[in-house]
Amino acid sequence: MKAYTYTCDVTKREEVYRVAQRVKEEVGDVFILVNNAGIVSGKQFLHLTDEEIIKTMDVNTMAHFWTLRAFLPDMVRSNQGHVVTISSLLGESAVGGLSDYCTSKFAVRGLHDAILREMSVLDSQVNCTVVCPFGVSTGMFDGVKLRHEFLLPFMAPEYVGRKIVQAVLTDTEVLYLPPYVQLLVIAKTILPTSAQLVLEDIIKLNEATKTFTGRRQDTPKKEN
C-alpha cells in the first residue's frame, strides 16, 4: 500500500481547496475524511487574547467546514464515503478553563450532527462517525490534573486509533471513549446544574487546567 502526504494549513480556506484538488488529481477521490486538527490554549476566559480565541475557532471548527466542502460533494455524488469527526467529551459537557476549546467542540458536534441528518434526507450511503474522547495522551493537555484521575483517565493514542478504525468498519455513529463517559452525558440531561457542579468539584474538574502546560508553555498547542 502506498501512502501520500500533503502539507496544508487547514485554517486557510483556499489552501484547503487547492490541496484537495491536488489530492484528487494525484491520488484520486477521497472516500474517508478524518477531521482531527485541534489546538488548545488552556487558559481561563478572562486571560484569553482575541487572537487565541480566533485561532482556536479557525483550527478546531472552521477547518471542518473547509475540508467537508472540499471532499463531501464527491462522496455524495458517488454515494459512498465516511466522515469521521474527532470531537471531545468537552463538546458535550463544558469545563472551566477551556472556554474556547469547549465552544469549538460544541460547534463541531453540531456541524457533524447536521451533516449526518442531511445525508439521511438524501438517502445517501455516506456514513458519519463522531468520536468523543475524554483525553488522549498526546501531550496536548500536559499538566492537567484531576482528583481521582482513575475515573477519567487519559488514553493511549494507539488504543484510541484502534477504536476509531473499529467504529468506521462497523458504521458506528457515536463513539465515546472510554465508553462509560456516555453516562456523564446522560447525567447532564437529568441533573440540575447545582448537582453537576458538586460532582465536578469532587474531582476538581473546573480547576484541572490551573497546572496546564501543554507541549510548550504559553503558546497554543497544535494537534494534527
**Fraction of residues in β-strands:** 5-15%
- The CATH superfamily turns out to be NAD(P)-binding Rossmann-like Domain
Query: If strands are numbered along the chain, what order do they take across the biggest sheet?
Result: 1-3-4-5
Number of domains: 1
The rounded distance between the terminal residues' Cα atoms is 22 Å
Number of strands: 6
Indicate the CATH class.
Alpha Beta
Q: Find the CATH topology.
A: Rossmann fold
User: Structural class of the secondary elements?
Assistant: alpha/beta
Q: Write down the secondary-structure element order.
A: HEEHEHEHEHHE
Structural account:
With 224 residues, the protein is of the alpha/beta class. Helices cover 44% and strands 12% of the residues. The chain has helices at residues 13-26, 50-78, 99-121, 157-169, 182-190, 193-202, and strands spanning 32-35, 38-40, 81-86, 126-133, 174-177, 221-223. The strands form 2 sheets. Strands 1-3-4-5 form a 4-stranded parallel sheet, with helices on both faces. The chain is globular. The chain starts with 12 loop residues before the first helix and ends with a strand.
